Amino acid sequence: MDTNDAIAALAALAQSTRLDTFRLLVKNEPDGVPAGDLARALNVPHNTMSSHLATLSRAGLIKSERQSRSIIYRADVDVLRDLTLFLVKDCCGGSPELCGPLIADLTPCCTPEPLRS
């Protein structure tokens, strides 16, 4: 990810409804969420949600797919990973102990739960 892409993504997320929308989409990966359900879940008028989704899409943070009469939105997890790596890439500055706590905080959210039989 280059600096301009990172700035576009961060600018798109720098608004509360868009940030909430993106977080909801990440939470619902890989299934995605129909646009109408996003608007209802966040109590946002449909036309306003459409504008927010367009901003997130232009920033490359989300993807959409038409399924019958609905448009399903999904977070682009690869872009999220790239943005996160862009932000922390040089955080250690030669001192790995500085990033250790950050990595420890990220690990629990990404560890798959064991399968139950």
Write the layout of secondary structure elements.
Blueprint lengths: L2 H11 L2 H12 L5 E2 H7 L4 H13 L3 E6 L2 E6 L1 H12 L11 H11 L7
Antiparallel strand pairs: 1-3, 2-3
Account of the protein in words:
This protein is mostly helical. It has helices spanning 3-13, 16-27, 35-41, 46-58, 77-88, 100-110; strands spanning 33-34, 62-67, 70-75. The protein contains 6 helices and 3 strands. Strands 1-3-2 form a 3-stranded antiparallel beta sheet. The radius of gyration is 16 Å and the shape is elongated.
Summarize the structure.
This protein is mainly alpha-helical and 117 residues long. Helix content is 56%, strand content 12%.
Biggest sheet strand order reads 1-3-2
Strand content: 5-15%
> How would you state the average pLDDT, rounded?
88
The major β-sheet equals: 3 strands, antiparallel
Low-confidence stretches: none
Bin the helical content: 55-70%
Radius of gyration: 16 Å
Number of strands: 3
Class per helix and strand makeup: mainly alpha
User: Which word captures the global form?
Assistant: elongated
Q: How many separate helices?
A: 6
Distance N terminus to C terminus?
41 Å
Strand-and-helix sequence, N→C?
HHEHHEEHH
